[in-house]
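RECORD TYPE: protein structure
NAME: FAD-binding oxidoreductase
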Amino acid sequence: MTPSQTPTLPEAVQTLLTALTTEHQFEDNQIKTDAESLEHWGKDWTKHFAPAPTAIVFPKTTEQVQSIVKLANAHGIVLTPSGGRTGLSAGAVAADGEIVVSFDKMNRIGEFYPADRLVTIEAGVVTEQLQQFAEDKDLYYPVDFASAGSSQMGGNIGTNAGGIKVIRYGMTRQWVMGLTVVTGKGDILHLNRGMIKNATGYDLRQLFIGAEGTLGFVTEAQIKLERQPQDLTVMVLGMDEFSDVMNVLSAFQAKIDLTAFEFFDSVAVEKLMAHGQVQEPFESRTKFYTLLEFEAPYEPIMDKAMEVFESCMESGWVVDGVMSQSIAQAEELWKLREYISETISVFTPYKNDVSVLISHVPDFINDIDAIVSSNYPDFEVCWFGHIGDGNLHLNILKPDNMSKDDFFAECQVVNKHVFDTVKKYGGSVSAEHGVGMTKKPYLHYSRSETEIEYLKAIKKVFDPNNIMNRGKIFDA
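PREDICTED:
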């Protein structure tokens, strides 16, 4: 739909859209204002805020993004970035008449530098698309998570996405060697340009990673790739005491370099089995489960893994376990962890994505369990997460006889107690999903008031008119 067909648009928005088509070579399919499109591109996976954008624009180049930003500044219009819209903190929700800038049409993979194991990509490249490109080059992009088939790299960079391999490979930040960004002023910056060594002052690239589009929009990135892992082997172990989960982690880490160490509880397994998409890992049911993964290209590594497993059994930490014997079996075992979010989504879970130092995890879990049990005696609670890096997902499941609004309201009452506990252990209220709007009221539990003032001052430098994803992270 062209701007001329939408006379009900606010005048400033109408003027901006008309300028894009007449002055900046935007085609009709690069602008959408119909109700279905506004609903689709105006939201992410959160269900807390209703989308209410005025238009969706689809730039194809960095220069077109710059045109949008400059026009938005001139007309006082707020912009919200949109990638794969898989976020869980409402960081990509346009709830107040914004124009959504979708990067769907900026999905090209550019120049590859074999000697540097480096590739240039546009922000709209899907995570799985980059992973496949790396595989085609006999390389590996290790940042991985359940939404890899739809999440976009610009969004991953904006939230510093983590996922299931952080224990070995780190967060998205570790793999971004350069960025092209359009700031809130409309300036184009080329940051670090892919270099490993660059000691020329402030590394502005790092400011934009995790900034959720509040300083400017990432349009391109130089991404580092890694060698492919060899002979990945997966174990799923069951235990009845949470302390034994940590004992097992320590035992394996002392002997083997793990590529993943995931955790989930019996509630998660119960829901998975009821859903029917995965098989029981072993005959006995236990209270807690871990999934661990490691490279085993040489027989001595496998021997060492079996030695550790047998030691854990003898110590009484592990009740039962299973180990993959093929790639297909490893993939099946991974489904036990990767399918949890999809399986429990029908229960409209209230999610908390928190992290503390690994050393604090047992005490933290005990404290949170006590809070949840006393405040939600009738609610089911599902725990899972990337426990090998201290990241835990607390999911409270909505009862069938309760409305979503009433359920969320009850959950939010106890948030103060949960986040007081996060603060007690010096943790983060958002380990890997960003702050957005859902975690904004709780930012002060992880960041001091002085820190937040510095964050606001940085935003004013890059986005003096406060048009870039306004209302996310904090209220400037």
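COMMENT: Residues 299-314 form the longest helix (16 residues).
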